[in-house]
Design brief:
The protein is built from 5 helices and 5 strands; from the N terminus they run αββαααβββα. It starts with a helix and ends with a helix. The model has no long low-confidence stretch (mean pLDDT 96). Bound molecules: protoporphyrin IX containing FE.
Length: 131
């Protein structure tokens, strides 16, 4: 029952939630994240999370994760960062990315929390253009 409740919370979250394995392969993605990036679930499950970002991060993301695996030195985990995502149609949008590491039953996964910033960024541009 608890597992069902947790699943319902994730499925109905406003923010996008994506889990990957320690090589960046998408294991789970919630409806909000699917809507933000414009994909259906079957299209992303099993794919590298790098399909969701523009260059240069797309080409480097595997090494970002590998660097962390080897050094244990986080650059986003527990810190967060504003990054760009890339939708299926190729367009990009800004979001706040939070990443946490989850260790359970001798496995390690990473959970990414995606808070869309496109509206706020558009509003900021409008405010700037008044001055
Ligand atoms: C590291 C970009 C999505 C997991 C990084 C770094 C950048 C980045 C710039 C750190 C590079 C460095 O300074 O070393 C992006 C972009 C994304 C994205 C543009 C847009 C889709 C995700 C998602 C997850 C994730 C959804 C998890 C589900 C990680 C992990 C690391 C990392 C585990 C290494 C640990 C760390 O540096 O703290 N990513 N990322 N990323 N990212 Fe992503």
């Amino acid at each position: 029952e608890r597992a069902k409740l947790l699943n319902a919370i994730i499925e109905n979250a406003i923010d996008g939630i994506i889990t990957i394995d320690e090589f960046g392969i998408i294991e789970h993605i919630n409806p909000s994240a699917l809507t933000l990036f414009g994909y259906d679930r079957e299209e992303l499950t099993g794919k590298n999370v790098s399909v969701l970002m523009p260059q240069p991060d797309k080409a480097r993301h595997d090494s970002y994760i590998a660097n962390y695996r080897h050094s244990g030195d986080p650059h986003i985990i527990g810190i967060g960062r504003e990054v760009l995502g890339q939708r299926k149609d190729g367009s990009t949008f800004p979001f706040r990315l939070g990443v946490s590491e989850v260790k359970f039953s001798d496995r390690r996964i990473f959970t990414g929390f995606i808070h869309d910033l496109s509206r706020q960024k558009e509003d900021e541009l409008k405010i700037k253009s008044y001055t």
